[in-house]
């Protein structure tokens, strides 16, 4: 439910109740006061909304996602979910950042975002606001579009829909490869219809070293099979039909306790690595229930933190080469997705909550990517 309707022609941000993700509200933003030193005002042009953003809300307290954009009014009860988007600089009190610059990065579901700019380079700059202290610098960074050699205007919608989650998936595949797959012969990927899972299956298939079994709901099975990037697709009810003697890596995008337990008990010691990422089955999740999770048979479930592997590869190969490899792979993935994922544009601010509730409930069409533009 939404506690307030969105006023027209006003700077706004969409907020979510931390203890009840179904409860939302629009809050007015004060963007009229003069900018302090190094402050920059961004006008959010467009952002993508996916199940991955719901995961940020579910793990917001444990993994710190609520800290990126704290609410100005009752931050203990309300939060602002991070999304990936494009924005334009409309006001700047930093001599190195000019009005009119277009940037890509992490932002709230809002019309505007005020940041304190620092760590400025030719390629981009960071938000060094006090609330960012201690958070991963990767998520505080804004890329300058004019300096991105892989930027293509025609790809913008797919870029904000896919780049963040593709980066995570690319790094998961690289992490497993880097660790010789922990001795496993196959991947098991839950929530196989989610865009993060699809990206992972795509990168796994591109590497061509291990098969990937997609696990999804019966309703999404046909769509997942049509993608052609999974070696095999099964429903959650069919987990026990899999051969328990095949050593496996679980990449859990669903997060539900029932599914996690079922896979761990079925494969037991043959589960060589259990990688936790998403939380699409939010109705069956208790992020604080570490005791029962840590005592499951097989490998101990471990949250994957993408910046750690990104930092390792940047040290191994250099930051430039690492970004080049990911960017080239992303371009191939975008072309793959054009035939399987269509883009739906929304410009009506009061329609945002309806889309959000569909994504939250898991009823959103997996073959449609939602791009929101609150300033249009």
From TrEMBL:
Pfam families: DUF2855 (PF11017). InterPro entries: DUF2855. This is DUF2855 family protein.
């Amino acid at each position: 439910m939404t506690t307030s309707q969105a006023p027209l022609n006003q700077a706004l941000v969409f907020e979510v109740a931390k203890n009840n993700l179904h409860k939302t509200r629009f809050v007015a933003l004060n963007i009229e006061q003069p900018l302090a030193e190094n402050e920059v005002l961004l006008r959010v042009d467009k952002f993508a909304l996916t199940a991955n953003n719901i995961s940020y809300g579910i793990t917001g307290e444990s993994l710190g996602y609520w800290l990126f954009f704290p609410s100005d009014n009752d931050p203990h009860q309300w939060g602002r979910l991070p999304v990936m988007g494009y924005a334009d600089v409309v006001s700047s009190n930093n001599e190195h950042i000019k009005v009119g610059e277009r940037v890509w990065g992490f932002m709230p579901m809002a019309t505007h975002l005020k940041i304190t700019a620092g760590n400025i380079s030719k390629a981009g700059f960071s938000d060094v606001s006090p609330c960012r202290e201690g958070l991963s610098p990767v998520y505080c960074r804004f890329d300058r579009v004019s300096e991105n050699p892989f930027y293509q205007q025609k790809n913008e919608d797919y870029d904000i829909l896919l780049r963040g989650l593709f980066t995570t998936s690319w790094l998961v595949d690289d992490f497993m490869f880097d660790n010789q797959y922990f001795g496993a012969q196959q991947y098991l990927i839950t929530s196989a219809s989610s865009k993060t899972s699809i990206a992972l299956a795509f990168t796994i298939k591109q590497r061509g070293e291990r098969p990937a079994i997609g696990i999804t709901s019966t309703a999404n099975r046909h769509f997942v099979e049509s993608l052609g990037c999974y070696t095999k697709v099964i429903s959650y009810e069919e987990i026990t039909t899999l051969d328990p003697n095949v050593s496996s890596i679980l990449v859990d995008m669903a997060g539900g306790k029932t599914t996690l337990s079922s896979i761990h008990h079925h494969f037991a010691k043959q589960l060589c690595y259990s990688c936790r990422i998403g939380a699409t089955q939010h109705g069956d999740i208790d992020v604080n229930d570490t005791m029962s999770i840590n005592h499951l048979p097989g490998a101990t479930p471990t949250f994957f933190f993408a910046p750690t592997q990104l930092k390792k590869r940047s040290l191994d190969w250099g930051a430039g080469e690492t970004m080049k490899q990911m960017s080239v792979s992303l371009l191939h993935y975008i072309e793959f997705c054009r035939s399987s994922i269509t883009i739906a544009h929304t410009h009506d601010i009061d329609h945002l909550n309806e889309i959000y509730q569909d994504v939250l409930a898991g009823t959103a069409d997996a073959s449609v990517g939602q791009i929101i533009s609150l300033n249009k």
